[in-house]
Design goal:
- This protein has 344 residues and is α/β, with parallel strands linked by helices.
- It has one domain: Rossmann fold (3-Layer(aba) Sandwich).
- Helix content is 49%, strand content 11%.
- The protein has an eight-stranded mixed sheet with strand order 3-2-1-4-5-6-7-8, with helices on both faces.
- Helix 2 runs parallel beside helix 3.
- The longest helix is centred in the middle third of the chain and has 28 residues, at 131-158.
- The radius of gyration is 19 Å and the shape is globular.
- The model has no long low-confidence stretch (mean pLDDT 91).
- It comes from Mycena sanguinolenta.
- Keywords: Oxidoreductase.
- InterPro entries: NAD(P)-bd_dom_sf (IPR036291), SDR_fam (IPR002347).
- GO terms for molecular function: oxidoreductase activity.
- This is NAD(P)-binding protein.
């Protein structure tokens, strides 16, 4: 049974936050998507304090990313931060990012897929997809799948376990993938990206939450297809409702409502980053227990009732097939990844 609202509010209380977990990341490489600000940047600071061999700050903006690298050094003394550019609203940029890692990226131990947007309005990317769905799910999934071979090779060469952390949200408890979307003749994802479907104001407002639900479905499905003996562990994590620039593009009454909610119950950004770090390095001796799990407040939480329902299981399967089909058409290398690593 999914947690009650009271339990979720309880996890928002500052005094209930777990301390940041400690780990030795000497020699290891961490990649954080959306690293230049907010929770992503605070996560990088924690990894820097764990003496990571390298931290790749994957950012959209050269200017803002460079500022983040310099700020990371100033605030932690860490000098091995690297700025890599990737624009998740542009599939070509994502492929170039992955190609670069294949040629000169070196080892890769941890990916924290933190980048996301919440525009609150309908926008098409240059690739013709609704922006929230492309950035939060399709491009995030493309990065992860393209870098999967490097995560595997790193784990095998160094006799370690690599981790993939997909940043989701507690908001997944408040939404489902609606029946109209599940029954759409074009498939779930294309229906969710259809401007006619999103003309409904409520649906567009919930699009961010729905993508966070899809993030969990993707993490669960990826973990299942990797299998229980894979040297790569995948999980999804909720950072909690934190002070963040995520909602900077909202407008109208909803923007002011969210500002009020931030003032009333939002956690400090650093507190949210602790949860991401825990998902990435927590329970080193029992890491297998985190495979495919949903993590909140540095512990495993049960997913929503919809996720574990019969409809949810079918939705997860359908989304997995659709995602691989769409990404496979965008990037010919996805087929090889699927054949070699996702056969379970």
């Amino acid at each position: 049974m999914q947690p009650k609202i009271s339990a979720r509010l309880h996890s928002q209380r500052t005094k209930n936050q777990a301390p940041v977990v400690k780990a030795d990341l000497t020699g290891k490489t961490v990649c954080v998507l959306g690293a230049n600000t907010g929770i992503g940047f605070e996560t990088c600071k924690h990894f820097a304090n764990m003496n990571a061999g390298r931290i790749v700050l994957a950012c959209r903006s050269q200017t803002r990313g460079q500022v983040a690298v310099e700020r990371l050094e100033k605030e932690t003394g860490y000098t091995k931060g690297e700025l890599w550019i990737v624009d998740l609203s542009d599939f070509q940029s994502v492929k170039q990012f992955a190609d670069k890692w294949e040629t000169d990226g070196g080892r890769l131990d941890i990916i924290v897929a933190n980048a996301a947007i919440e525009p609150g309005k309908f926008f098409l990317t240059k690739d013709g997809w609704e922006s929230t769905l492309q950035v939060n799910h399709l491009s995030t999934s493309l990065v992860i799948l393209r870098l999967l071979p490097r995560l595997f090779s790193t784990a095998k060469e160094n006799r370690t376990i690599s981790r993939i952390v997909v940043v989701s949200s507690e908001l997944l408890y408040d939404v489902t993938v609606e029946k109209d979307a599940r029954a759409g003749p074009e498939g779930i994802l294309r229906t969710l990206a259809n401007p006619q479907y999103l003309k409904n104001t409520r649906r567009m407002r919930e699009q961010y939450s729905v993508t966070k639900l899809i993030n969990l479905f993707f993490a669960r499905a990826l973990s299942a297809h990797l299998g229980p003996s894979a040297p790569v562990i995948v999980n999804a994590v909720a950072p909690g409702f934190c002070v963040s620039e995520l909602r900077r593009d909202l407008s109208g009454t909803f923007k002011y409502f969210m500002k009020l909610m931030e003032w009333m119950i939002a956690l400090p950004t650093e507190h949210g980053s602790r949860r991401l770090v825990w998902a990435a390095v927590g329970l080193p001796l029992r890491a297998d227990t985190l495979r495919g799990q949903f993590i909140n407040n540095c512990e495993v939480w049960e997913p929503s009732d919809f996720v574990i329902s019969e409809e949810g299981r079918k939705t997860e399967k359908d989304l997995w097939v659709e995602t691989l089909d769409i990404l496979g058409r965008l990037d010919t290398k996805i087929g090889a990844v699927k054949e070699r690593y996702l056969s379970v």
